Structure prediction request, 662 residues.
Amino acid sequence: MTTSQALMPKTGIRYWPGRFVRGIGRFLKLMSRNKTGFVGFLIFIGFVLMTTVGTLIVPKVTSADINAIYAPPTWQHPLGNDSQGKDILAQIVHGGRDILQMALLTGIISTFIGVALGSLSALIGGGFDAFLTMLADIWLTIPRFPLLAVLATLVKLDNMLFLALLLSVLSWAGLYRSIRAQVFSLKERDYIEAAVALDLGMWHIIFSEVLPNMLSYIAISFTFGMTSAIYAQVGLVFLGLVPLTRNWGVMINLAWTQGAIFFKDSIYFIMAPVTAIALFQLSIVWMSRSLEEIFNPRLRTG
Amino acid sequence: MSSTTVSTQVMPTKIPLGRWIKRITSNYVVRMLARAVFTIWFVTSLIFFLVRLMPSNPIEVYINELMVQYSIPYAEARDQAASLFAIDLDAPLYQQYFDYMVQLAHGNLGDSLRSPGTSVWQIIVTFLPWTLFSVGLGLIISFILGMLIGMLLAYKRQALWEPAVSGTASVLSSIPNYIVGIVLLVYLGVYWNLVPIHQMRGSRSPGIQPGFTWVFIKDIFFHAALPILTYVLSTIGSWILSMKSSTIGALGEDYVTVARARGLSEGRITTAYVGRNAMLPLITQLLISIGFVVGGSILIESIFVYQGIGYRLLSALTTRDYPLMQGIFLIITISVVLSNLLADFIYGWFDPRVRIAGGN
Prediction:
């Protein structure tokens, strides 16, 4: 804080480090308005730190230890050991990275597709709009997870970018509908019409008038894209249909195929990844509430 | 409209063809039906072309497999594969597509690759009812319970226990359904040893006679209990939360105030004014969740080894039984489309505006 204050000149010219720190401060203050949302945000940050910094601190376990099979938790192994005697905590720390990356990637791509198609559809209208709306209606009724499972047997889904792209394409319809409806209603608002009448320019209208009013939808859909990506990815991995590097889904799958799930001592082996996935999903959903309030000031209470 | 023209003229006037067409196409029921048929056609074609145009064409894979397994020449293996896939491999793609559609229209889905002599249709008929039973019952229970709890929360939102219930609902709604299933299995079945999970496997006990007997009904509920519990727990949270917020919204509406001013009984206001309007948005959600839950049955049924269509689909996927896979996927789609259609009609029945205005 002191450095940022020192950097802030009295002349009023803003240096970006100061603005940046103040921006983060404001962001945190807004985030903390909603208690649940803030807790979710903190857990989410915890997961991000764990999969980035954590992997540098906790060493990756590669060798099995026959003497420690299903050993209960100790100070050295806080979550106990798995069916091969490997430390579970290390696996949890290292197993989150590709789930997190995949979720972020899918969130970004699906939001982009939804926003682009939704706004285009509402702005162009006519046959284009009617066609896309009909396609979205049909798309929503296609059972997504079975389709993914069928696709997994036809194509190798081991490339993360490809899987993210596929998940995004499969889930465009929901976001498309809400963005389209939002743009339609925004088009009729007085302030947009005023901006058009004042000839403020296309870019100004899009970025200063329309987008800020859609940010809460975009934030929500981004988090929704993330959670559904995690659901689908872990689900596919759990069923053994997608070969990916060791992650939480693979841990559940291993516990499952080795029958560890029916073994009382292995409770840590199965519950650790289960808790990680549940907590991660929960943190994203909770965080989305704070994001919604930030971008939609009308929701702010108190 | 037509009644006035009939009464003024002796002969029933000929309504122009154009107007008839317009009347048919603007009919709510007809439009819904057309969309359902179109969706099924779309998905069928999608799967057909995906299977045929994929880099690792499953039919070629199967032909190679046959050649290796029985050491037969390519042509023979090809004929065998063609008959199993119910496809003429020499015809151009559009011809194959046309034939496939004709076969499908006759209800012929081909034969299973892994259990020769059994048609895909037979397999579906034995496995599908269990999924419909468990998923359907689970969704109905959770929908009704969720609505009641949601309304209660909206009415008692000052109560001390309200945040606890809402919090639980929010946790339940964010956790993936298979995670709920695994946790139930691990704790109820293994750790606390409360339920005999090994006996609960399958859709019914071996050797039991199906029929309207108490023993049979008890048995199928015994086997479906855990999957149903999973469906209820994993969907109820979102029903509670949306019902709560839409009830709070409805309570603030003018017509509720007017109804109170007219001195209507609180019970009537709750059911006919608040409840009926508050549940409208939930029906649309139910519509979307049907597809999601049926799709998720692959995971839930695999966890509990419940022999429904999802369980069978997974085994078809792992053994690469393509005709069966195609058939089951089609059937899942059809059941989702039909249940959506049903939900649309129910929506139209609850909200007359949809029927009359022909949608938004």
